[in-house]
Design goal:
Length: 477
């Protein structure tokens, strides 16, 4: 007798992306547990791919989904939430057509192969947000950002920040120095030669200064770090094969190949005049994200990253969009020591052997030494090849301890956002968006940052499911 093999059951997180997300207007959010802390006043913003399918056709990679923004405003009278898709030109055109039309990171545009290279790529505005005094920027690293209204999230349109050429990339990882009120960012121009464009802006986002640096090949650079007086870029050992892209026979994702022989290329840039201080090279690795950087007492630059040994993470993230993953990709919080004048790495130190993604430090510590690093991770018993991030954690560099939250079974978190009490700097919280696969619902959880392993102090209900996303920010009231 032939026995049919039982197909593995999808993990609970797949329910969060099974259908395109549903927008909701400004809505008073119910308190499900605890109370909103008195000092928690301001707005939490989160961005992520919310639509992975249109007209029955699915996107090719998680990075291809249309971006939608969640805003949760905490006031003296409670909390209000609003959730809206970014109304990019491509989103509106595809909505009218009822089907996917454009190519993107992991998919080719509709139409004949011979014409692919001429087809524009859709701006999905799905990666991060930057809250400026008079607008919210929806960030995607392939183009100018989209500007939105801070309260209603109404899309205003593309914004060149007073200095970006049309189509010039502005990455999803700006670094804000809250002491000097300067904003630094970058963008990679792929042609005719791969170019690193670096920008310095004032606190309104207006670009004041730009610089350009030629890169070797076409590397995958997603993030960088502010470290004291330096901007530091690590170009991982991943290169895009440009010809299949130009011929339209490959997606950008599939053109990216692991090349350990090229090592990790390092660029150190002076933050004041955006001049090149040094270039260096070290052993190969891949990182999407930096946690933070600073200059120690001896003048050595210390950079903390979420480090992968290779580029399998890209395949894992591609699989997320299907609702089933099977590729393991572990990243650990790793510290790199380098001499800024030479770009020479003197030490590489794994800080803890636990998965680390979306690492960050308190806003006021960006570019300076920080005792605490916050991150998303996996519960110890998780199969990291089949799950998505399901806990948040804090690493204390002073005591070298790792403290994690217990969200419970079948609950999945977003990147934790650290928020200080405006009236009491000794008090702070961690905010995360939680998808509960048990009840197919989404909530906002508030933890005391010093009691992360205890029960949250507040849980807020949301009107609809918010799919797992990428990055967010906090704007104080």
């Amino acid at each position: 007798m032939h026995i049919l093999e039982k197909k593995p059951t999808k993990r609970a997180w797949s329910g969060a992306i099974a259908q395109p997300a549903t927008e909701f207007p400004p809505t008073e959010l119910p308190i499900l547990y605890g109370n909103i802390p008195e000092g928690l006043r301001g707005t939490l913003y989160r961005n992520g791919p919310a639509r992975l399918e249109r007209g029955g056709i699915h996107v090719g990679h998680w990075f291809d989904g249309d971006g939608a923004i969640l805003a949760v405003n905490f006031t003296d009278t409670g909390a209000t939430g609003v959730y809206r898709y970014v109304q990019t030109a491509g989103y509106q055109e595809e909505a009218a057509a009822g089907k996917l039309l454009y190519g993107n990171y992991g998919m080719k545009a509709s139409g004949p192969i011979w014409n692919q290279w001429r087809r524009p790529v859709k701006h999905v505005a799905n990666t991060s947000v930057l809250a400026l005094p008079d607008k919210l920027l929806a960030l995607w690293e392939g183009d100018n950002p989209y500007a939105l209204d801070l309260e209603s999230l109404e899309t205003r349109g593309l914004d060149n920040l007073g200095g970006l050429d049309k189509g010039l990339p502005y990455s999803a990882h700006p670094k804000v120095d809250y002491q000097t009120q300067e904003i630094f960012n970058f963008g990679i121009s792929p042609a005719p030669n791969a170019t690193l464009n670096v920008y310095k802006s004032d606190f309104t986002g207006k670009i004041l200064q730009k610089a350009k640096f030629t890169l070797e090949g076409l590397p995958a650079i997603h993030d960088f770090v502010l470290a004291g007086q330096y901007l530091v870029f690590f170009a991982p050992a991943v290169r895009a094969n440009i010809w299949p892209l130009l011929l339209g026979t490959s997606t950008y994702s599939d053109s990216l190949k692991w090349h350990p022989e090229v090592g990790t290329q390092i660029l150190v840039i002076d933050r004041d005049n955006l001049s090149l201080v040094s270039r260096g090279e070290t052993e190969p690795w891949f990182q999407w994200h930096f946690a933070n950087g600073y200059v120690d007492a001896s003048g050595v630059v210390i950079v903390d990253i979420a480090r992968y040994r290779d580029f399998q993470t890209n395949q894992y993230l591609k699989e997320v969009a299907t609702g089933e993953t099977h590729t393991p990709a572990k990243s650990t919080l790793t510290r790199v020591h380098l001499h800024p004048d030479t770009g020479k790495v003197t030490a590489i130190q794994e800080l803890i052997d636990r998965h680390c993604e979306f690492p960050s430090v308190p806003q006021q510590n960006v570019g300076q030494a920080s005792r605490y690093t916050y991150m998303s991770s996996f519960r110890p018993e998780s199969d990291i090849a089949q799950e998505i991030l399901n806990t948040i954690a804090r690493f204390d560099s002073q005591t070298e301890t790792f403290t994690e939250a217990d969200l419970g079974e079948n609950r999945y978190c977003s990147e934790p956002i650290h928020v200080h009490d405006a009236q009491n700097q000794a008090q702070s919280w961690l905010l995360t968006l939680v998808y509960d696969g048990n009840s197919h619902s989404s909530e906002v959880w508030v933890f005391d940052s010093d009691r992360l392993d205890e029960t949250p102090i507040c849980k807020l209900g949301l009107p609809s499911v918010i799919p797992p996303g990428f990055h967010g920010t906090w704007k104080p009231a």
